[in-house]
Write a structure and sequence with these properties.
With about 200 residues, the protein is mainly alpha-helical. The protein is built from 7 helices and 3 strands. The chain folds into 2 domains: about 160 residues; about 30 residues, no CATH class. Helix 1 runs antiparallel to helix 6.
Amino acid sequence: MTAARERLVVVLGVLLAGALAVLASTQTFATATVTGVRAPVVVAGQAAAPALAPLGIVALALGIALTIAGRVARVVLGVVLVLLAAAVLAVSFPSVVDDAAGTKGAIVTATGVSQVDPFVVARHGTAWPLVAVIAGVLALVLGLVVVIRGRRWTTGGRRFRADGVVATDPISEWDALSRGTDPTGAGEGPDGPDR
């Protein structure tokens, strides 16, 4: 696989991981049947893991930034992506191993009682916390790829590099036009061969 194709795959993977994290945060993580409450209490990902959506949005931004980042910046972004992935895993994994994780706040809101355990008849988790964990694992792997292999990727075009920027002075350009010369260097002036 060429370096350009590897970079494209990594960027698309990071964008996918960020999108999965944001999507999972909007879905139901668990439902709980509570004594005295008619309908089951639905616990959304935003309630169970409030940081999940912002982390996913940051992952999306990192994916976009990787498309124009230079060699050093890519390594920094890779490290940030690894840390971000660890945070996604930290906020979503508890809901995978325990359906009760993150449900207490929603049940307290529904019942108005702080000690909710005696009132909970049943809890049922969904697969969405696992989707968030998969997003975190994907981001972690891709972050490591960026740190290890990102230095050999090509840098975005000259227009994105500071050393490729040609500084121009608008006043000098107007003066050149007044003298009859082309400040862009495309022609030789009014009496040159381009006339």
